[in-house]
Known about the structure:
Blueprint: H1 22-34, H2 39-48, H3 55-73, E1 83-93, E2 96-105, E3 110-116, H4 121-132, E4 140-142, H5 148-156, E5 161-163, H6 170-183, H7 192-209, H8 224-235
Parallel strand pairs: 1-4, 4-5
Antiparallel strand pairs: 1-2, 2-3
Amino acid sequence: MRRRRVRPPVPTSEFAGFRFPPGMIILAVRWYLRYALSYRDVGELLAERGLEVDHATVYRRVRRFTPLLIDAGRPCRHTPVDRWFVGETYVKVAGRWTYLYRAVDQFGQVIDVLASEKRNLAAVRQFFTRALSHGRRPVEVTTDRAASYPRVLDEQLPAAHHVDDRYANNPIEADHGRFKARLRPMRGLKRLRSAQIIGSGHAFVQNIRRGHYELGVDADPRNQLTAAFTELTRAI
Length: 236
């Protein structure tokens, strides 16, 4: 009996099966991550372009495509440098305060973001494990005076100098403020995964705008983010 040759599956675009073109989908995601807009605000802006989109649809597209954009841009990301500022801020998820661990380097690159229901040793350990996967190990880490930080740094970065002086962590505190400004128009988050996606997406856009990705580098600085998302749209 003659064997039939098995053909490899043809790769399909992540946009296959959607009613709107990829450019419009990514435009809605970019607007939401970049500007202090609610899902309904994004829907109104799309309506001005002749696209009738429900706010729930915008919500689903942000949740679906933000992680894909971040993954597509990963090879173009600059390696974080060796001085880190680490801290946590608070966001409300389903009416309860939740913790968002964040870190930036001395040039303002957001290294990683982790949403956690608890502020404990396990959460700090998980955050540093994720952050260290991005490349260079820091020689200096500045944190607040939470008791869990020294223990995790002794485990994972024993050679790093730990700084916990008062006001030394101002760079990350200022960066928290930019993220909080993004959250103000929203009525609150319903799920922990939403906090993770929006926190990571906001950091992703912020890093592109600050020049920490090799994306949109040939474009006018005012159009860099638009050019970067156009490149990423082709990649997914």
